[in-house]
Design goal:
- The chain is mostly helical.
- It is built from 16 helices and 3 strands.
- Strands 2-1-3 form a 3-stranded antiparallel beta sheet.
- Helix 12 packs antiparallel against helix 13 and helix 15 runs antiparallel to helix 16.
- It starts with a helix and ends with a helix.
Length: about 400
């Protein structure tokens, strides 16, 4: 019975966001938004504050804005850190942060964590109940902060870490977005030419009464295939893409091969390498500064690298460090880290300032990624223009070759 009563109380404590209007003690009209378990408790709370509520309505939980994204977690971390550093109690800090969030999904997540904390659960345990949004690294750092009695300081470090991690992800996405978007546009333009333009030329060529050049016939055959079997071609491509993504998500070996190949792709490969090193160094610096033991820290660092090649390397380093080997030697044995990174880590180990040196490595490589993305954009522009020229120009030449031949016959 006690368990059932407790479950009922927890269900009743689920909060939502309410918009209210009323008049204060001086008779002036006031309004605002507040989180509460129900309308009755909110009205009672407003009266205790000297406000006579005239209208209270629950905010609708629309799906506008989508789900919870990593950038939302970064913003939440910074806001919560700022509140705690300012001396605001944790439960009140959650209320303030939730009240200022526009996305219903993020607000719901914050209120769920707040309800657990308010019921006596520690913050790291409350966060661990939402592994899709708070990974092991995040939870371990919060736990370290709670155990050390420096949660506000640790949350500040977590917020900085999440912000820098999201920044590096955006830079990598920026590097890949431009060429991908241009190629997609080129594909769409080619498709339009194949479906609407080339058939017009084909009708014109039928009146020539002569054999068409091989290149022209090749393009016309492709155009006919797209017109008559385009739907089936699209279905086959869609199924192939689905099968690829299905096995990519479930096959670690496949991901490892693709990650290894991606690191060797010209222009893009160096950016991915530098981004992985930046994430490795930034995560290591944050974990070590939080007082997490090195072996335990390396386990979380491995998952944060974003590339299976580096993840496997860090896990092997963890096993070697666990046997007493120095981190520097373990990094040298993996042959994936530049000599400068290894030497800086070695200096940090010798001086007892591993977190500081790792942070400097992260800052350096984050700047390198930023510069590499800008340089890549400059390098890819002429290359992409050549690709577009070959595709579109090739189609134009194929369509005008018969006309040129006809001109030579007439001449």
């Amino acid at each position: 019975m006690a368990t059932a009563a407790t479950a009922t109380l927890k269900t009743q404590r689920v909060e939502a966001l309410y918009a209210w209007e009323g008049r204060d003690k001086r008779g002036q009209r006031v309004k605002g938004t507040t989180t509460a378990t129900d309308e009755t408790s909110l009205r009672a709370e407003l009266r205790r504050q000297g406000i006579a509520p005239s209208r209270v309505r629950k905010q609708r939980e629309s799906m506008k804005g989508g789900g919870v994204k990593p950038a939302d977690i970064a913003i939440f971390s910074r806001q919560l850190s700022t509140m705690l550093i300012s001396g605001i109690p944790m439960v009140q800090a959650f209320e303030i942060v939730a009240g200022g969030v526009d996305k219903p999904s993020v607000r719901k997540l914050i209120l769920a964590v707040k309800a657990d904390v308010e019921s006596g659960t520690s913050l790291h345990e409350a966060l661990a109940k939402h592994p899709l949004y708070f990974d092991d690294l995040y939870v371990n750092l919060v736990r370290a902060g709670e155990q050390a009695g420096a949660l506000d300081t640790l949350l500040d470090k977590i917020a900085t870490y999440k912000e820098k991690s999201e920044a590096i992800k955006k830079k990598v996405k920026k590097a890949l977005f431009y060429p991908a978007s241009v190629l997609i546009v080129a594909f769409i333009v080619t498709l339009i030419l194949m479906i609407y333009v080339i058939p017009e030329f084909q009708g014109l060529f039928k009146g020539f009464g002569a054999n068409l050049p091989a290149f022209t016939m090749f393009v016309i055959n492709i155009s006919n295939a797209v017109q008559h079997q385009g739907i089936w071609i699209g279905i086959v491509i869609g199924i192939a893409a689905w099968v690829f993504m299905h096995f990519y998500r479930r096959s670690r070996k496949m991901r490892e091969v693709l990650d290894r190949v991606s690191l060797k792709v010209p222009i893009i490969g160096p950016i991915l390498n530098k981004a992985a090193i930046a994430r490795y160094a930034r995560t290591l610096a944050t974990m070590f500064a939080a007082g997490v033991p090195l072996v335990e820290a390396l386990e979380s660092v491995a998952g944060a690298c974003g590339n299976i090649v580096y993840e496997d390397a860090v896990l092997k380093m963890r096993d070697e460090v666990a046997t007493g080997q120095r981190l520097q030697r373990a990094m040298e044995a993996r042959n994936v880290f530049p000599n400068m990174v290894v030497q800086m880590i070695a200096v940090g180990e010798e001086a007892g300032s591993l977190d500081t040196m790792a942070s400097k490595v992260a800052t350096f490589y984050e700047a390198e990624v930023d510069n590499a993305v800008d340089s890549m954009s400059s390098l890819l522009e002429p290359l992409i223009m050549v690709i577009l020229g070959v595709i579109v120009g090739g189609l134009v030449i194929a369509m005008y070759l018969p006309i040129f031949h006809l001109g030579q016959v007439v001449g």
